[in-house]
Amino acid sequence: MRHSFLLLPLLVTLLAQPASAQSRSQLGPLCTTETTPADQMIAACNKIIALKVFSGGQLATIYFWRAVGWNKKGDYAHVVADATEALRLQPAQAIYNLRGSAYYDKGEYEIAIADFNDAVKSGPPSGTIFHNRGNAYRGTSDYAKAIADYDQAIKLTPKSALSWQNRGIAKEALGDLDGALTDINEAIRLDPALASPLINRSVIWRAKGNLERAIADASEAVRLAQNPPANVMTPPGSVVIAAHVHRALAHEAKGEFDAAKADYAAALKPTASDAGSKANQATAKVRLSLLSEPAVQPQQRAETAAPSSTAAAATGQRMALVIGNGAYTHVQPLPNPPRDARAIARSLHDIGFTVVEGIDLDRAAMQAKTRDFLREATRAQVAVVFYAGHGVQIDGRNYLVPTDIALSAGSDVVTALVDMDQILAGLDDEVRTNILILDACRNNPFAAPATTAETGRGLAGATGLAAPTSLGTGATSGAGTLIAFATAPGKVALDGVGDNSPFSAALSRHIGTPGLEVQQMLTRVRAEVVSATKNKQVPWSNSSLLGEVYLASK
Question: How far apart are CA 517 and CA 36, in angstroms?
């Protein structure tokens, strides 16, 4: 979930130069009072700007407060525009802070850090600035710098509940659950009316397996979230959304599915404006859908390489979904994906994973298999998804291709595909590590055909694009997620001339190496693939993992 920024008031007052008594007695206070409702604040500031009697620092003040109004509405593009104009008129610490907070809520963490750096330089030491920069560092997964900034914030403002809370969140991300619990308990002691520390403590209880306490804390957070403190720059509805999602996850882990469905539905009601809330709502939408449809019965599943995944989920073991599609009906068939999938399934089973395997699945079977896996993975500690076969990228989203796909120009091809972002949203959780491995190309099927000396795993060999932005803009930052692609952006993943693709062959050899950290394992795979393909294929990955992850025990 996302966490609140603090508002640093701009200490510049309006001079008594308005053109009328109305602007002096009504517009000024309405525009520059923090508790004024957003629409009234914006309207009052608009009228003052329209008077054209202010300039320099006075006009900067008005733009600043109008940006505050836009921030209350979650309109971050307008926040950035007004804050930028205020900075042009007269740079000030509070304006840099406000613009940085807007960039943060847009998921643009590096730009936010630059603004907070300027804020630090342009005024006296401020616990608020260090707190907010710590949030942005946390957004980039630089938890050491985040904790250092929270330390400074707490030193300057020891009674800031949010700084204690967010330092606890950073400690939790690094696996220090006890240290996180200590900090978050202090945040609750300092401000028992604040909802967000209770949400974070709920996550910790769930990670510790104490679902009763997790539900109790999230329930109190739901109650408190209805009236957030006025001095916290909270995106509209964000705390309410997060409280419902985390209570739902606890209910679901406990097997209380009706209660979970009610919470997921409640999380979808507010309008989400910030990246974190949108990610939480994406998770709520997918999980509500999973709970609202009948689960695939065991006899309906394809054969698996291990015992039932339900047992694995119940005991917190590691789970994997492995799919290999090659027998395509209407597009180029691929000989190797079924063999690739079986090889990876065996390797994962050998190192203790419970594996759900699917070979040559049409869309209905692929959707059913994926949804069944996502239902059961909610209680797993590590979830791996491996896919080999055709893949496409359309309008910035990545899709996996079922065997019954039939492409034609002008058709609604997206509805016939499996959306990888939906899989990511269904797995998104702060208490689980997720690893997605795709031996597929990410091509637009309507682009001009390309020729290649070897068979590729794209459709009509077009232009592959970059990794999904989910990892950088809004996904939860707890246990972490890694997505590994068989090839670099814009390139084709080769199916190969042997029994397995170059990528899957290397992966199956290294994935079971005892004591090999997952990113080191992928480095070995990359080197082997580059050598085997004579530099034609370079595997690539995007990671928000927080620490070392070992698939095979040391």
Answer: 53
b/e string for 358-374 if b means 16 or more Cβ within 10 A? Answer: bbbbebebbbbbbbbbb
DSSP 549: -
Q: Report pLDDT digits (tens) over 80-91.
A: 999 999 999 999
Contact at 8 Å (CB) between 181 and 187? no
Pairing mode, strands 418-419 and 397-400: antiparallel
DSSP 3-state assignment of 400? strand
The b-or-e profile of 182-217 (16+ CB within 10 A means b, else e) is ebbbbbbebbeebbbbbbbbbbbbbbeeebebbbbb
Is residue 108 very low, low, confident or very high in pLDDT (cuts 50, 70, 90)?
very high
Alpha helices, DSSP H, located in 18-55: 21-22, 28-32, 38-51
Largest CA distance in the chain: 84
Cβ(251)–Cβ(218) under 8 Å? no
- DSSP H or E run through 384: strand 382-388
User: pTM for this one?
Assistant: 0.76
Higher local confidence (pLDDT), 545 or 350: 350
Cα 25 from chain centroid? 46
Backbone angles phi, psi at 61, to 5 degrees: -60, -45
Element (H, E) at 312: helix 309-314
CB atoms within 10 A of CB 234: 24
> Where do the domains of the chain lie, and which CATH numbers do they carry?
5-157 (1.25.40.10), 300-543 (3.40.50.1460)
**What H or E segment, with its residue span, contains residue 368?**
helix 363-377
Report pLDDT for 140.
Answer: 87
Residue 230 has pLDDT above 90, yes or no: no
